[in-house]
Amino acid sequence: MTPADLSRTVLHAVRRAVDENALRAPVPARVRVERTRPGGSGDYACAVALQLAGPAELPALEVARILRERVAAEPGIGRVEITGPGFLSFTLDAPSDSDLAVLHAVREQGIAYGHGGALRDEILQFHHAREVRAAVTAHAVRRLLVSQGARVRITCQEAGDPEWSRLGVTIDAHGTPPVPLPRIRPVSAGATAGELLERLGADAVRWGLLRPAGHDRAPLGDDLLVQGEANPLFRVRYAHARARALIRGAAALGFTSAADAAPHEAPARPLLDLLADHPGVLLAAARHRAPDRVARQLEAVAHAFFDFHDSCPPLPSGDEKPSAAHRSRLALAEAAGTVLAGGLSLLGISAPAHL
Length: 355
Fold this sequence. Notes:
By secondary structure, the chain is α/β, with parallel strands linked by helices. It has three domains: 3-93, 2-Layer Sandwich (Gyrase A, domain 2); 123-223, no CATH class; 229-346, Isoleucyl-tRNA Synthetase, Domain 1, CATH 1.10.730. Helix content is 48%, strand content 9%. The protein is built from eleven helices and seven strands. It has helices at 3-19, 48-56, 60-72, 95-109, 132-147, 193-200, 202-210, 232-252, 268-287, 291-311, 324-346; strands at residues 33-35, 44-46, 77-83, 87-92, 123-128, 151-156, 173-174. The longest helix is centred in the C-terminal third of the chain and has 23 residues, at 324-346. Pfam families: Arg_tRNA_synt_N (PF03485), DALR_1 (PF05746).
């Protein structure tokens, strides 16, 4: 069971409680579940009972008890506890099955893993100035929102800079809108698209403009071109390239990733957790119009990938023969590479198979 699955399970329990008249409160549009913080119990926690206590005119603990009865019987739930003033803490049944579900989802959905329909009812329009960072940010925001089902229109105050096409940027119209529109206005890049492209190239320009939060200045120095670990863009793209190289190496050795197992070694845990959280990160980035959240997620995935790769090599060494452990490790490495490629694509950045 993935975090998204658990969220839907809790929401279903709320709906059942309301339908059965055990709870008199409006059903929320969504339920947020989070990984349990250090020192807490269970795998995930949820504050929905506290959210519903007021409208239901019941103590949060009573709301939590009503929901616990209905969630505990659902497949994939091992244990449901009530903690503090009314938090629900969930321990998932067979964690390895949950991990396997994530790997299967990544394999089935490919670079579209994490895309969904949560915003399918939204029709949005944004406006921005004739400035390269605003244009690139608006383009990335559009991609994120569309990945979650929204329909989006982007307009610019003036006709776009012809150089924007080299960054993949398009606008739907230009001019002063007849009514005020939500604006995309990050801190200016302080340079034109042409000046940045000549010095850095399209991928580094897009990363440099999108990686900082919109209210922060965008560092656009030559360190974006450094081919080393100190450059986060290089590290993310190198992690993807390394994952692709592992797949090629395994094929040369005559084996492929396992479709029926997930790695059990401790170093795999952070990477598996990040992959499970990826759909939630994309949805949050879309809701908050914040491409920088995706960039930070990719950095975290790349870091966890290398930690896992170095501790649990997916390829056998020397005369060692491929084992079930190698196949399951390769499945995780393959999934990480897919998530990295999908995230870079949403940011409009290429993911080379070789670096």
